[in-house]
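Ticket #4471: structure export looks truncated?
Reporter: QA, pipeline team
Priority: medium

Steps to reproduce: submit the single chain below to the structure queue and open the exported record.
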Amino acid sequence: MESIIKINRDVFILSILSERPMSGYDLIKEIFHRYDVFLNQGSVYPVSYALEEDGTLKAEFHEGNKKPKLYSLTPEGREIAQKRLCDFTEAMEAILDSTSRRDKYA
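Actual output as written to the record:
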């Protein structure tokens, strides 16, 4: 489970941000809370910055406070997140299906 989350951290970040805006620190805490997987700042922030650069996320300072930035999905980002989540789910289902079929013939 841990390697799946670490390799696909962008998908999990998009999934969580589709629910509500969060700071990078809150993303780290939420992923740990949900999946018991610790992602450090060095793995979450570069993904957040890249998603912000490509227009998937926007980052805003919260209520006049310069820290922390809150990340949220842009309208285009919502569509991208939905597609990436569907693609990820389909891939995982295909892997599970393939694995279970192989077990039947073993």
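Status: closed, not a bug. The export was complete when the record was re-opened. Leaving a note from the reviewer for reference: The helical segments are 2-7, 9-17, 24-35, 41-53, 75-105.
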